[in-house]
Each structure stands twice: as structure tokens, then as C-alpha cells.
Write a structure and sequence with these properties.
The protein has helices at residues 11-16, 38-58, 87-96, 104-117, 123-136, and strands at 23-27, 33-37, 66-75, 80-86. By secondary structure, the chain is α+β, with helices and mostly antiparallel strands.
Length: 142
């Protein structure tokens, strides 16, 4: 995202010697006039660019968290067997298809999967926690 041409950090502004702040007027939510400066807009653009560059450097905020080996579980009334291959898939099962929410192992599995998705834990830790919760809920297919 490029900075506006009135921005002091924009190369074209530096070469032309334009000031960093000018003013524009616009309508606020209540209908009255408000003043916004190019300096504030430039600052927001610069902050956004910095945040995006940091996110790109670290990789995506949420990753899939692939398991080394899938966990097989039986879900639903018919006992349909599903192979859960990642922390993201485990979160979907925990949030939408879990028979016994609120147990200690369920909570531990959910927290472990979230940590994997945010990149603070290894996927194998979440896999083990998910398998333990599935065993406790009697849906693990061994």
C-alpha cells in the first residue's frame, strides 16, 4: 500500500518539498464537519505498512498445524469416522462436533490447538492433547 502523496515519508513528497501536513474537511458520523490532517493519514498508512511487513516476515498469523499422523475419531449419531490431520481441523471438531465439552482434557486440547495455530506450540503437542480428549470422550478410533 503506497503512502499518500502528501505524506512526508512518501518519496515524491520529499523530492518536491511538500509539507507533511495539510488539512481536509469531511463529515463525521454525526453529520458535523471534522478536520483530518494528511499527517495522521500518513501515520496510519505507515503503521499499517509496518504491521503488514512484520506479518509477512513472520509468516501467516494462523497456520494449519499439520499433524505427523492423523487422529481417527468417530463423530455424529452414525459414528462416521474422520481422520483429523491438523490443529485447524481439530479446532473445528472441538468447536462444532464434540460430544462432551467442558472437561479438563477438552479444554487442554482446545488451548493446545489454538497455541499451534498461533505458532507458539508444536503440532505434535496438540495432536497428543486432542487424542487424549478424544479417548476421554470415547470417540477415538484406535
Amino acid at each position: 500500500m503506497a503512502a499518500p502523496s502528501g505524506c512526508a515519508s512518501h518519496p515524491a513528497s520529499l523530492s518536491r518539498g511538500k509539507p507533511a501536513s495539510g488539512s481536509v474537511q469531511g463529515l463525521s458520523a454525526s453529520g458535523g464537519l471534522r478536520k483530518a490532517t494528511f499527517g495522521r493519514a500518513c501515520n496510519l498508512v505507515s503503521q499499517h505498512a509496518f504491521i503488514m511487513s512484520q506479518a509477512l516476515r513472520r509468516g501467516p498469523v494462523m497456520n494449519e498445524g499439520w499433524f505427523a499422523k492423523p487422529v481417527s475419531i468417530a463423530v455424529g449419531f452414525t459414528g462416521e469416522i474422520r481422520n483429523v490431520s491438523s490443529a485447524r481441523q481439530a479446532m473445528i471438531i472441538l468447536d462444532h462436533h464434540w460430544p462432551d465439552e467442558g472437561t479438563a482434557k477438552y479444554v487442554e486440547a482446545r488451548h493446545s490447538c489454538l497455541d499451534v495455530l498461533h505458532g507458539t506450540k508444536a503440532a505434535d503437542i496438540a495432536r497428543e492433547a486432542f487424542a487424549a480428549a478424544a479417548r476421554e470422550a470415547r470417540i477415538l478410533v484406535e
